[in-house]
Recover the amino acids of this structure.
């Protein structure tokens, strides 16, 4: 019974996302159905703290979960995203990209330009936490440069897309959400340096090499179509030092960590707030206007509501959904089946990751796929004693690879304005999955 209900919940989630049902409503509705099921088979979901009515207990459970968890991971996501929004308003991120773009204009080989843009895009993902936002920025800044250097539209767009496949920064909210969905406690800086950085390097190295080969082959097969796009001539007049500001949270988290200054420890929230303080000082010194500081602070807190009603509430609902789904018992059965296959741990993890990637291809929602895959990964890790933080990030990697192969993913839809989604996926699937599979296997052998 538990397995049947779990699979049915999975199926309803996939169908709902495919039917474009609002993800927040879908997760909340399915969570409530799970709570009703648990009430029928196990009694009150509140145990001894019951309200006195089983139906009201289900509603009270949701309220209690919100009040207990909205100040943890969700608050961190809000603060990180609000700081990123301040950087956008100040043109600090654009200034960083503009400075990086200057030496690129001297490179004439189109495939060398593709490699440079992919590396820059991967670097920018440490300070731009939203995949679609990163795609839009790189398209506006580097796509005209790529075209002017002889890169085809397909090769250019796909390079931007697959370089955004991995959420890997030390302050990335998706990584935070994934760790919560897997119910593991991690130090974000140690997790970044000890696990995610190595996996990223392996993934990116293989992906770039394979994409260089496949892009050349695909460009020969297809007639080159000139994309009449004008290079972005916008000159961002903010001081050059503003380009440092988007990187400050990353810098502070690495400095005040066991790897450098171990006597001081700061979390993501502190790093972002400290960076905000320094940003205010920069703005005050450069503009000498107090009104500018007021606008920045107002924008920072205005972003709180925007992020909460978008990404924040989705992550919170996904965490609650995963917690309730685990309580059914079907996840343990699935994990038991997987661990009973008597296959090497590397193949077991690879199987879970491929499953996660396929789910993301189908649903096109990163959080939706993580909500399904991470609880399974958690149960398998617990049953086998495998490295849970490693598996958690490998599932994120696989979901990222699935993202760029999904025709309904927001990043693909953004680029669909330049190149048809089907052509994009066809030209990038080999490179992104080659990188993912090699990174998964190498990660397991080195860190597992």
């Amino acid at each position: 019974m538990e397995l049947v209900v779990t699979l049915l919940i999975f199926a309803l989630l996939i169908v709902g996302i495919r039917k474009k049902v609002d993800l927040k409503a879908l997760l909340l509705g399915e969570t409530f159905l799970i709570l009703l099921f648990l009430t029928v088979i196990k009694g009150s979901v509140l145990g001894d703290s019951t309200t006195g009515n089983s139906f009201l207990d289900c509603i009270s459970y949701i309220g209690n979960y919100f009040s207990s968890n909205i100040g943890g991971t969700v608050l961190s996501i809000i603060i990180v995203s609000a700081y990123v929004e301040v950087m956008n308003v100040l043109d600090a991120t654009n200034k960083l990209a503009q400075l990086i773009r200057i030496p690129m204009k001297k490179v004439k080989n189109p495939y060398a330009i593709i490699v440079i843009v992919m590396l820059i895009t991967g670097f920018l993902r440490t300070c731009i936490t939203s995949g679609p936002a990163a795609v839009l920025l790189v398209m506006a800044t580097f796509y005209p440069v790529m075209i002017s250097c002889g890169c085809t539209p397909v090769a250019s767009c796909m390079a931007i897309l697959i370089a955004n496949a991995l959420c890997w920064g030390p302050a990335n909210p998706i990584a935070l959400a994934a760790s919560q969905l897997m119910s593991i406690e991690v130090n974000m800086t140690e997790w970044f340096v000890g696990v995610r950085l190595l996996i990223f390097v392996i993934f990116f190295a293989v992906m770039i090499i394979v994409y260089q080969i496949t892009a050349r082959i695909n460009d020969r097969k297809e007639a080159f179509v000139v994309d009449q796009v004008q290079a972005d001539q916008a000159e961002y007049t903010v001081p050059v030092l503003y380009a440092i500001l988007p990187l400050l949270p990353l810098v502070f988290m690495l400095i005040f960590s066991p790897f450098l200054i171990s006597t001081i420890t700061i979390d993501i929230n502190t790093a972002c707030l400290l960076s905000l303080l320094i940003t205010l000082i920069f703005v005050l010194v450069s503009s000498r206007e107090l009104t500018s500081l007021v606008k920045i602070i107002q924008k920072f807190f205005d972003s709180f509501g925007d992020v909460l009603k978008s990404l924040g509430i989705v992550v919170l609902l996904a965490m609650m959904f995963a917690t309730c789904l685990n309580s059914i018992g079907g996840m343990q059965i699935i994990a038991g089946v997987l661990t009973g296959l008597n296959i090497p741990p590397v193949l077991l993890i690879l199987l879970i990751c491929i499953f996660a990637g396929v789910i993301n291809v189908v649903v096109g929602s990163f959080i939706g796929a993580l909500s399904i895959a991470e609880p399974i990964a958690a149960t398998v890790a617990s049953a086998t004693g495998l490295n849970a933080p490693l598996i958690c990030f490998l599932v994120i990697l696989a979901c990222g690879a699935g993202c760029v192969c999904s025709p309904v993913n927001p990043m693909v839809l953004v680029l669909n304005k330049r190149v048809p989604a089907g052509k994009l996926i066809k030209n990038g699937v080999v490179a992104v999955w080659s990188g993912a599979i090699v990174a998964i296997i190498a990660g397991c052998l080195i860190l597992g």
About this structure: The chain has a mean pLDDT of 82. DSSP finds 19 helices and no strands in the chain. The CA atoms of residues 353 and 395 lie 5 Å apart.
